[in-house]
Design goal:
single chain; mainly alpha
Length: 205
């Protein structure tokens, strides 16, 4: 898991962080960078758990093969600024990716990211949606280049047991354990999830 988190965060260059900071209306690139590391860890944790649920692994594997071959990683700045177009709209559907991976836990996840980084909950939620296609792209590229089948995909995602010691120096700390507890807990949607989505939609306009 640590290696996968490092692979994702390697794509978060300083220029890209500045662009993301501008897009979500934040003022502190360092807070955005810290949140980005946490989001990478969160989404990879969610993906690793998805592979261990009935049908979850097949769904994730299918989505990677159809929509996430890692092509966006060649020009992330262009994709984020709209200067580079993607052929498949689902590749950049961060909202759908986050909803699929986190379900009714989006609000709690955004709260944890916000508390960890100093971003407010709405900016954390939008950043999560912007980074989700990058995380999927990294895993999709690895799946494609290595010719991984479902078992191989599950092995690399589950290999770290959901923990990340490697990001501690970058602010990861105990987040792996917190995310593990969050993702393991049963949760039902509530009105606050709707309010979070409304707030994020306003912020993105």
């Amino acid at each position: 898991m640590t290696n996968l988190i490092n692979e994702v965060t390697r794509h978060l260059s300083d220029d890209l962080i500045v662009q993301l900071t501008r897009q979500i209306g934040a003022s502190d690139p360092n807070a955005v960078k810290k949140a980005g590391f946490g989001i990478a860890e969160l989404l990879l944790n969610a993906m690793s758990r998805s592979t261990s649920t009935p049908g979850g692994g097949e769904g994730l594997f299918g989505a990677l093969k159809r929509d996430h071959d890692g092509g966006i990683l060649g020009d992330l700045m262009g994709v984020l600024t709209g200067k580079a177009q993607v052929n498949n709209p689902k590749t950049m559907n961060g909202e759908g990716i986050v909803r699929h991976l986190l379900g009714a836990k989006q609000l709690e996840a955004a709260q944890v990211i916000g508390q960890h980084s100093g971003l407010d909950i709405f900016k954390s939620g939008v950043l999560m949606q912007l980074l989700a296609p990058i995380v999927m792209g990294v895993i999709g590229q690895k799946q494609k280049s290595s010719g991984l089948d479902l078992g191989g995909l599950a092995q690399i995602l589950l290999g770290g047991g959901g923990q990340s010691r490697g990001t501690a120096s970058q602010g990861g700390g105990q987040l792996g354990g917190i995310f593990g507890k969050l993702l393991d807990r049963d949760g039902d949607g509530n009105m606050m999830d709707d309010l979070l989505n409304i707030g994020m939609q306003i912020l993105k306009k």
